[in-house]
């Protein structure tokens, strides 16, 4: 992977892109008027991270999907679609909480103001944001992501993305994004050091109509949760462990979740009460 900028970058975005490249251990390259495809071909890399003035973008599998030699009818002037941070449904869910309406995850987790949350599988951090709003400034949400590029997207997005709702922006800023293995981080935490441990792994049985998650599936860690991680979560959590999964999947039974909350969709939440 290489890191670059937009065609006419500000000094700030140049500095930011160089910082990100250094953190990721990637090569920083000047844009030089090249298209994303041309950059991928020049530097022989399938993935490109681009720091625009307003957001960080990630272009995945550019060589594999966009090589004009593979398709004589391909329009090489059209740039591939990037992946980027967006609060997605968390914005809708938080607005519902603001109106006093319920949220399935908050209800089944029992999260309340002042709680500390360990989100072991952050993804694009949508659930972390909802948790952050629910626990407020007195609480704390630590969002763990094992994939470096995805961690960078969410860390920068949580720090800089703005909406018209100050309280939502504050909830995003309060989420602490951390790169690492949730299994190792759980092992390193003291006994009973957080209130709620949350897992939302990539579903073993994908929900095909969930289009927002499709780009994430290429980048995310697909490893199934281990029994060891659940045992460590039981040691670390004070109140509950929550697992989000496909309602018809066997992961709840395999991992020992004996209570299930259905959300009215194909998603369900398993809970271990401590």
Architecture overview:
The protein is α/β, with parallel strands linked by helices. It is 38% helix and 21% strand. The chain has 12 helices and 12 strands. The strands form 2 sheets. The protein has a 7-stranded mixed β-sheet, with helices on both faces. Strands 2-1-3-4-5 form a 5-stranded mixed β-sheet, with helices on both faces. Strand 11 and strand 12 form a beta hairpin. Helix 4 packs parallel to helix 6. The protein is globular, with a radius of gyration of 20 Å. 35% of the residues are buried.
| Approximate strand percentage | 15-25%
User: C-alpha Rg, in Å?
Assistant: 20 Å
Query: What characteristic shape results from the CA principal axes?
Result: globular
H/E order of the elements? EHEHEEHEHHEHEHHEHEHHEHEE
Number of strands: 12
Kindly name the structural category.
Answer: alpha/beta
User: What portion of residues is helical?
Assistant: 25-40%
Low-confidence stretches: 66-76, 206-213
Q: Give the biggest beta sheet.
A: 7 strands, mixed
Mean pLDDT across the residues is 88
In spatial order, strands of the major sheet run 8-7-6-9-10-12-11
Number of H- or I-type helical stretches: 12
N- and C-termini, Cα separation = 43 Å
